[in-house]
């Protein structure tokens, strides 16, 4: 089944018989048989005639035959699709380069090209006139219905609003699709005939992707291919689909292995790209981006032409990223890590430069991922501003759940970075508080005991008996008290913990500045590994890599009998790869719980999850996300590094007592 809110679009380049509209119509019809599950199918510029007809465009016989083939194609095209083809069209003695829009057996609109390239290898102004200023409805002798003609046409089915431009229209300083998007178009189509020259494809792809991002829309681009005349040029056959600044699909083209020569003639389709575009996400981004809704700078109103679709259930034809915060491509991942690390360093440097030079910078170093990232950010920040490494005090505070491994890694990290170090065992202080509160951790009385004897007794408790919120909170708050008594505290909590409320209020929840506040947990591990492999070598690299492989745990509950960590964060709150996936789609794309469930089932995570597991952890995510808002309402400053942030001063302003019922019910 296709997850809700997706629209399938196809951009196709067909085999062209130059100046043979009948053969070209046959190729288009055959191509449509291949794309029966697509909602919109776009073909290239002047595909019914061929783009390279030259002086033959002056021949009435060719122009009349194109009209006849167009209406035959419209009558035979699938009724449940929007099909867009290109042809030359005569209107009041003007020859127009037009896009014809077909639906439900009819031609429902003709959109002429505005900007005609007449420079270098292009010579369109010799034959065609611009469609600028044409806004009419015409009668055609071939059919018994009227056809809207003009540059003011948009085509609408429910929330899908389609705008159309032709080739050069995209390459000008202000593209017609920009005005169409302001007027509501969220799916933009471009019929093109783009020749291939060295380096042109990169620029072309950049234009398509950038325009989709600027317009908060899907952008579908189909170019004529190498079966056009090659008298002077070779056409690319390049087909592209982008959404909100991201490339979704791309065909082969001339230069990347597109079949040419006899093989082209064996198939009506030379190249194509198909993808499902997320209309819900586009709508969410448009609601969130207020500058989308500006006034047009001149008098221009658009006619909206209705069309019909019959959208069936089908498997999703689009890759759903299981780790949306972590780029799949290794080079992109390394670049992302470098960017985030430098943003963190720059942010902390600015804050530190505003502080008295004698004020120590303090970090609680646990030997875990988050505190390690904050520590190496602080160390590199000192290098950047030319300050002594002794400005940072790394405090290791072992408690009842601290393992030898994490303690050793914490101390080694501080030493190897050249920072000042301090060790404070928090167990005696916490034991005193238990006694003051008359609290019996896990039902074990503190009366008449030393903290050493209590520790031994707790270690022998069965694992299923180890849950005591007071026991954990006392340790967390003791650590924060000690840190804040020493100086300016650099926080370590990450974005995923903030979303889930996985922190103790006014303990690890609080600091003077938090460098990790918008880095998700799934990316923290990659950041630590990246810094280890690119910024350090030798012993310190080994320590960082060992920390990156350590299980995630707050280390607040007693160790097992063999002194190993038994408290696993993910065993309690669920897998972070799922929670980060839920977080991204809930906050960034505004997806409903039902859509998040469907997307979760359509992707492949690092480990397989049953539908029941996905539902369980999604319900827990929603419950904790809403419940934790009171913690997020009062968090320290920290830098935004990606498109998802939960800062109450910036991206996420939510009442602390919002009711999650309608989300959890779904």
Describe the structure in your own words.
The chain is an alpha/beta fold and about 675 residues long. It has three domains: about 10-305, Carbon-nitrogen hydrolase (Nitrilase/N-carbamoyl-D-aminoacid amidohydrolase); about 330-560, HUPs (Rossmann fold, 3-Layer(aba) Sandwich); about 575-635 and about 645-665, Glutamine-dependent NAD+ synthetase, C-terminal domain (Arc Repressor Mutant, subunit A), CATH 1.10.10.1140. The chain has 22 helices and 20 strands. The chain has a seven-stranded mixed β-sheet with strand order 13-12-11-10-9-8-15. Strand 3 and strand 4 (about 95-105) form a beta hairpin. Helix 1 (about 20-35) runs parallel beside helix 2 and helix 8 (about 330-355) crosses helix 15 (about 520-535). The mean pLDDT is about 90.
Decide which structural class fits the backbone: alpha/beta
Amount of beta strand: 15-25%
How would you write the strand order of the largest sheet?
Answer: 13-12-11-10-9-8-15
Q: What's the CATH C level of the largest domain?
A: Alpha Beta
How would you describe the shape? elongated
Rounded radius of gyration (Å): 31 Å
What is the total domain count? 3
Largest sheet: 7 strands, mixed
**Cα end-to-end separation:** 18 Å
CATH homologous superfamily annotation of the largest domain: Carbon-nitrogen hydrolase
In CATH terms, what is the architecture of the largest domain?
A: 4-Layer Sandwich
Instruction: Tell how many strands the DSSP assignment holds.
Output: 20
Residue-averaged pLDDT: 91
